[in-house]
Amino acid sequence: MTTQTAPISPESKRRGLLRSEARDAFVFILPWLLGFLAFTAGPMLASLYISFTRWEIVTSAQWVGFAQYGKLFADDRFWLALYNTSYYVFLGVPLHLLMALLAALAINLELRGIRIYRTLFYVPSLTPVVANSILWVWIFHPQWGLANSFLERFGIEGLYWLQDPKLAKPALILMSFWSIGGQMVILLAGLKGIPAVLYEAADIDGASSFQRFWHITWPQLAPITFFIFKP
Fold first, then answer.
1. Most buried pick, 139, 187, 200, 204, via CB within 10 A?
2. CA–CA distance, 214 with 207 (Å, rounded to integer)
């Protein structure tokens, strides 16, 4: 006597596939998740706990509550550091992204030799940090730097780029433009992935270049922009 099994309904199959996909996804992200807990979230939580204690490394930690934060908020150097950080985050990071986007748009054109220009734009981001530091110290040197030599042609002399507190932050922002290659490549990949039919439809409707960018390019790049938009 044979027994017949009930047929599996499509809904059960769908739930089984979803569970299988969820399990596979969790297995794939597990290495990153463990690394995040061990090297990012863990140290952050430990630092938060230590901030409520008085700990001199060689002695045991003593719980002091918000006493450390009271000293912090009363220190003028904290507010200066907060201002400098905010200055860079709210001005430097958007400008960095804007420069990367402009570079990606410039090298997205199908011209002869465009691959050479793409390489030239990307190579500076591969330069070692030490070499970059030496290069920019040379450019911003107050006596014989290239920046001051260029500005002398317009009657501007004696700028102390890295020594003047008012010029140091703009100088650091300018230095950050040297490393736009990584973000530029990601944005270029996003531009290549935008369907051409969207631009063809916009051309038929008589859209201008700005309208095409604002209503097609920028919305299509929104996920990529969110991915690379970080301090």
1. 187
2. 10
